[in-house]
From TrEMBL:
It is a multi-pass membrane protein. Keywords: Membrane, Transmembrane, Transmembrane helix. Residues 333-364 are annotated as: Disordered. Residues 338-353 have a biased composition (Basic and acidic residues). It comes from Lojkania enalia. One of its GO terms (cellular component) is membrane. This is Rhodopsin domain-containing protein. Residues 58-290 form the Rhodopsin domain. The lineage of its organism: Eukaryota, Fungi, Dikarya, Ascomycota, Pezizomycotina.
Length: 379
């Protein structure tokens, strides 16, 4: 490869503005999602403080992985902006003409950082979703699904770690991965083409496993069909992440064989932004749904805790005696004493996917609730 002596005829062709727009849109989307997610968490936390689910934790391991995913996603976006400034989306002859081999080295370094952040972000998103599954399964007696989720958790963790390490140590010395001035005989590198193809294939596979695993997890939960379908639909939107992975995979062979690497990288990089942005959105949707409680008074819930002798009165006049909740017997198994019908609508069952089931710790049960009024007696 030689440095052109004059500006190429196709120098005006560029996809840089499109790359910047896609990256900026991804940053904005994830920023809004983060605000909504933790507004939902704060809403649940406020309800916990007034007695609903007292002693349970609103925040969990899925939130930790979400924070890591968001942090690495913004690292990816910064690296993409840098790569665009250094020539991504323009023809390689233009980069060489304007900046020489040093310009190509600087561009390759930015892409190297993009690859490291991209693989880390995807791994954190999948681990966040799997951690959410584990919270949901905390109240299920069967251990089979929990074991399956933990196995997938281990596979995703190992796959993420392996991908990031291969990206970082793909060449020795490490700087040979981006420094085009290092001669072939002075460096040792893995087969980068084979790695990126294998990475894309495993990405599609693990995406499909993680998101479609929501079906056997949510389907048996004891909640009304409307809420269950809403949760399933929310998680299965993650299928779009599988589609984006597959689309990105489709671009890989052409990218790896194209000599005009700076121009060919633009479109796959756009999909590399879209995929984690959608993943962060999907993994946050169950938490975002809790925002609907924001417009309710925290103390106006249909049940509470702390009553030594209290009575639940159904709306049509039936009474059900509660146990002493202060002594830890905080599970209520109730039915409508007059109609015997199961109530539908908003019964807060979904909320307890995050702050725990009604049953005592260790019983491993998810309890269904009915919409009730609470009256207290000092007798």
């Amino acid at each position: 490869m030689e440095v052109p002596k004059e500006m190429p005829a196709n120098a005006s062709e560029s996809q840089a503005s499109t790359s910047r727009a896609v990256t900026a849109a991804g940053c904005a989307l994830v920023g809004v999602v983060v605000v909504l997610r933790y507004l939902g968490r704060w809403t649940l936390h406020r309800r916990v403080l007034v007695g609903k689910g007292k002693g349970e934790h609103v925040y969990g391991m899925d939130d930790i992985f979400n924070v890591l995913a968001v942090a690495t996603f913004y690292g990816l976006c910064i690296a993409v902006f840098k790569a665009t400034d250094r020539g991504m989306g323009t023809h390689i002859e233009v980069v060489l003409f304007e900046h020489g081999f040093q310009g190509l080295t600087d561009y390759s370094q930015a892409v190297f950082v993009c690859a490291a952040f991209y693989n880390t972000t995807l791994g954190m998103i999948k681990l966040s979703v799997l951690s959410l599954y584990l919270r949901i399964l905390r109240g299920v007696q069967s251990q089979k699904l929990r074991i399956i989720v933990w196995v997938v958790f281990g596979i995703v963790s190992c796959n993420t770690l392996a991908n990031v390490l291969v990206v970082i140590f793909q060449c020795w010395p490490i700087e040979a991965a981006w420094d085009v001035t290092i001669l072939p005989q002075d460096k040792r590198c893995v087969d980068v083409n084979a790695f990126y193809l294998g990475n894309a294939i495993t990405g599609v596979t693990t995406d499909a496993i993680v998101y479609f695993l929501s079906i056997p997890i949510i389907k048996p939960l004891q909640m009304d069909n409307k809420t269950k379908l809403q949760l399933l639909a929310t998680m299965l939107i993650g299928g779009f992440a599988v589609v984006t992975s597959a689309v990105r995979l489709g671009f890989m062979p052409a990218l790896l064989s194209d000599p005009d690497a700076t121009m060919a990288m633009a479109v796959p990089m756009n999909w590399s932004i879209a995929e984690p942005a959608v993943g962060i959105l999907v993994s946050s949707m169950p938490a975002i749904r809790a925002i609907r409680f924001l417009w309710r008074k925290p103390g106006a819930d249909s049940y509470g805790s702390g009553a030594v002798n209290s009575t639940l009165k159904s709306r049509n006049g039936g009474h059900i005696q509660l146990y002493d909740m202060k002594n830890g017997a905080n599970q209520v198994e109730a039915s409508d004493v007059d109609s015997g019908k199961e109530r539908t609508g908003d019964n807060d069952s979904e909320e307890h996917l995050f702050i725990g089931s009604y049953g005592p710790r260790g019983l491993g049960q998810i309890s269904r609730t009915t919409e009730l009024e609470v009256s207290y007696s000092s007798k």
